[in-house]
Amino acid sequence: MLKIENLHVNINENEILKGLDLEVKPGEVHAIMGTNGAGKSTLVKTISAHYDCNVTDGNITYKNKDLLELDVSERANEGIFMSFQSPVEVPGVNNSYFLRTAINEKRAYNGEDEIDTMEFLKLTKEETAKFNIDRKLLQRDLNDGFSGGEKKRNELIQLLMLKPDLILLDEIDSGLDVDAIKIVANVINSMLDGKRSIIMITHYDRLLELIKPDFVHIINDGKIAKTGDYSLALELDEKGYEAIGIKDESN
Ligand code: ADP
Ligand code: MG
Ligand code: MG
């Protein structure tokens, strides 16, 4: 699915990622952890082609294609979905219209017909009801005046409707209450079909406990410093970074 080799990324002339390697196979869930400022967001922003991130060396292969050759919309149309730490508010753009446009762009890119309006309505109704998400969010403008929790719920609607192949979650659980975290976990778990892959950044044990990643990686000094299974997240939660040999660069 995704192979990252020797990735070097600069932000504003500062080297943030310094030769990072990561391989994600179909169906796998990878959790990325690390101290504040370690470069976790930089990694997923680079995969989704965020303009801040300047790749200076290395390769990323996605579905056997050179990912770095694809622009931001091509990456989305190829099935990469990124949930942002702080989604932008877009007043004046109806949320439902935005989502339907995104679905249709992806369909057109892949040579499929546009989604029928009735089918779109039926699907949004079904999916939101299944997970107890307020469908009224779709009638508002995109993220406009949405609370933190509403923005995250809206990203879940996007996930359910766009059905991406590679899902990048940047602290989707931050600021959410326990019930909302359960909804996030239910949606994510429902999407795990053995083919779809997930890279999730989180500090919180609760989401990991509900999703149970196959791999846990810790980024330090611009590279993957440690890789383990779910037990590494538990160890980290119990002992902290220093005890497992990771220097906190944010201090
Ligand atoms: P994390 O997500 O692990 O907390 P980030 O990837 O957001 O870390 O940031 C890594 C480093 O890059 C930090 O030192 C941060 O200050 C810096 N950085 C991130 N975004 C920018 C930006 N737009 N301009 C300048 N520096 C940035
Ligand atoms: Mg941070
Ligand atoms: Mg971050």
TrEMBL record:
Belongs to the ABC transporter superfamily. Ycf16 family. Transmembrane segments: none annotated. InterPro entries: AAA+_ATPase, ABC_transporter-like_ATP-bd, ABC_transporter-like_CS, FeS-cluster_ATPase_SufC, P-loop_NTPase. The gene is sufC. One of its GO terms (molecular function) is ATP binding. The keyword rRNA-binding does not apply. It comes from the Bacteria. Keywords: ATP-binding, Nucleotide-binding. This is [Fe-S] cluster assembly scaffold SufBCD, ATP-binding protein.
